[in-house]
């Protein structure tokens, strides 16, 4: 029998579970699980992704916990594994995300629906194969003070590649800090300021424009580039609109 009392501690995977029709089985989520808005508002919040309230989790008596290697802390996950079945996903690329969708769907008895969803996402991405390697060089910012960017071995990097952008910091790994000197040397054609985890806004563009005067600076929806569940269905349209706004299509 599939799990009946699920706690999901990763926002993108929580949205996936709801989209698979598991509304009734979900008993707990994190405070960062904000989609779908009309359904998450009534679920118990068990803290943040890296600050889980273990006592609340114990009170909910879950029979399954869905986590992620990067988004949750090793210490808390290992503690939870002493008490409950915990499935820890590890998603670094778009193919990883599609495999995760299929795997998680099977775990919860929704294999057919998960396969349909994964194929839908694959179909929406098909057109991007023709633009790969032809787009501008980019720096994708995730943090300020210090500046941090998404580099290789991250899901964001995989999304940038899929969208046809050339990551100026693709020679580095994970989420490196970058200095003003690094940026002046890199001079990316395009700077993407993500809405999360740091909430970049219009007021932050001037400071970066001063460092990289020739770069075009654009605010982007971080969920599109970093949520690796069913939100990927929205990614192709968003990226196409981004390309149009940049005059690339």
From TrEMBL:
Give all residue intervals belonging to the Fe/B12 periplasmic-binding domain: 5-249
Q: Which domain of life is it from?
A: Bacteria
What's the short name of a Pfam family annotated to this entry? Peripla_BP_2
Xref: InterPro entries: ABC_Transporter_SBP, ABC_transptr_periplasmic_BD, Vit_B12_bind_prot
Entry annotated with the keyword Signal = yes
**Keywords, ordered alphabetically:** Signal
The entry's protein name is ABC transporter substrate-binding protein
Name the source organism: Larkinella humicola
């Amino acid at each position: 029998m599939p799990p009946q009392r699920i706690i999901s501690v990763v926002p993108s995977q929580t949205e996936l579970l709801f989209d698979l029709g598991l509304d009734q089985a979900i008993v707990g989520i994190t405070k960062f699980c904000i989609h779908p808005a009309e359904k998450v508002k009534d679920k118990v919040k068990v803290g943040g992704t890296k600050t889980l309230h273990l006592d609340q989790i114990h009170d909910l008596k879950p029979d399954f916990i869905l986590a992620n290697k990067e988004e949750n802390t090793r210490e808390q996950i290992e503690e939870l594994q002493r008490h409950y079945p915990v499935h820890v996903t590890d998603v670094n690329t778009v193919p990883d995300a599609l495999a995760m969708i299929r795997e998680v769907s099977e775990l919860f008895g929704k294999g057919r629906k998960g396969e349909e969803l994964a194929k839908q996402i694959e179909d929406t991405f098909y057109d991007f194969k023709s633009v790969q390697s032809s787009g501008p060089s980019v720096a994708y910012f995730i943090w300020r003070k210090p500046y941090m960017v998404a580099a290789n071995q991250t899901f964001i990097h995989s999304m940038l590649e899929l969208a046809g952008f050339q990551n100026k910091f693709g020679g580095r790994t994970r989420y490196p800090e970058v200095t003003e000197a690094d940026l002046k040397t890199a001079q990316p054609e395009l700077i993407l300021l993500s809405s999360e985890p740091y909430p970049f806004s219009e007021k932050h563009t001037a400071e970066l424009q001063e460092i990289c005067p020739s770069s075009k600076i654009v605010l982007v929806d971080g969920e599109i580039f970093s949520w690796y569940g069913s939100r990927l269905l929205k990614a192709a349209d968003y990226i196409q609109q981004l390309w149009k706004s940049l005059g690339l299509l």
